[in-house]
Amino acid sequence: MSNINRRVIISCAVTGSAHVPSMSEYLPFTPADIKSQAIEAAEAGAAILHLHARNPEDGRPTPSPEIYREFVPAIANETDAIINITTGGSTRMTLDERLAYPRLAKPEMCSLNMGSMNFSLHPIGAKIASWRYDWEKDYVEGMEDMIFRNTFKDIKNILTEFRDYGTKFEFECYDVGHLYNLAYFIDQGLLKPPFFIQSVFGILGGLGADPENMSVMRSTADRLFGRENYHFSVLGAGRHQMSLVTMGAIMGGNVRVGLEDSVYISKGVKSQSNAEQVRKIRRILEELSFEIASPAEARAMLGLKGADNTSL
């Protein structure tokens, strides 16, 4: 949107499914830790909490509605943040597994990846000297031969089903082609503005973290959708996180941080919590004279149905 007095939405992706516990001792994976870190991130200024679930025994990504219910309702009760439930799950889950909890929760927002891709962190495996749990090594190194499936039919079925729930989406776009995929579904009449586009940079298999790529994504989205019809947000993976999201805000966008996207707070220093990253980007933005959107303001900007209209 083009309002020069706009407020910036901070999203926080609390745990994700790509990073494994061996990458950081601070990565939350028990329901209690996910809950406490999410609440702290909301208190620090995150208007949107992007949530995945993990097996509390070993941190393995899980689609289990029972585990989601151990932390999502508590987060919803203790904050007014927008709860954004993944439909991506992990590359190892079937589509029905990925949708198991979102179908029950009918949240205000879900994430939705806009195309199949070779999403991979496998080069990181060579840098890990010892693994905390026995599943992690095969999981990380196995990404080299995994396809993250999001076919046109998969996406169409999700959009059609969740339209009935009144759920809106964080459209995760890892490449320029994903923007064109989104435009296709808009042309099919499955979506109406405002759209929330999360541009992802720095994941192997998608666009690199070169700053020039941000201009390509922004200008392409302007051509396809018209700037008045969408909200742009930026996710920078790993060491690129803070510099890219700051640049995204300067270019008129919103920002996403969190331990799903980077386990570091600065060069060589592990982030001890999601809130630490939220506080850092909030400080940077406020020093640049941006104002931070509250959850209520974010709901109005994105046209969400409200927390009272969910089954969390």
Helix/strand/pairing category: alpha/beta
Give the C-alpha Rg.
Answer: 18 Å
Q: Could you give a short account of the major beta sheet? A: 8 strands, parallel, barrel
Enumerate how many helices there are, as a single number. Answer: 11
* Annotated CATH homologous superfamily: Aldolase class I
- The total domain count is 1
Q: How many beta-strand runs? A: 14
CATH topology: TIM Barrel
What does the oligomeric state look like here? single chain
Strand order, largest beta sheet: 2-3-6-7-8-9-10-11
CATH architecture: Alpha-Beta Barrel
GO molecular function: 3-keto-5-aminohexanoate cleavage activity; metal ion binding
Keywords: Metal-binding, Transferase, Zinc
InterPro entries: Aldolase_TIM (IPR013785), BKACE (IPR008567)
Protein name: PF05853 family protein
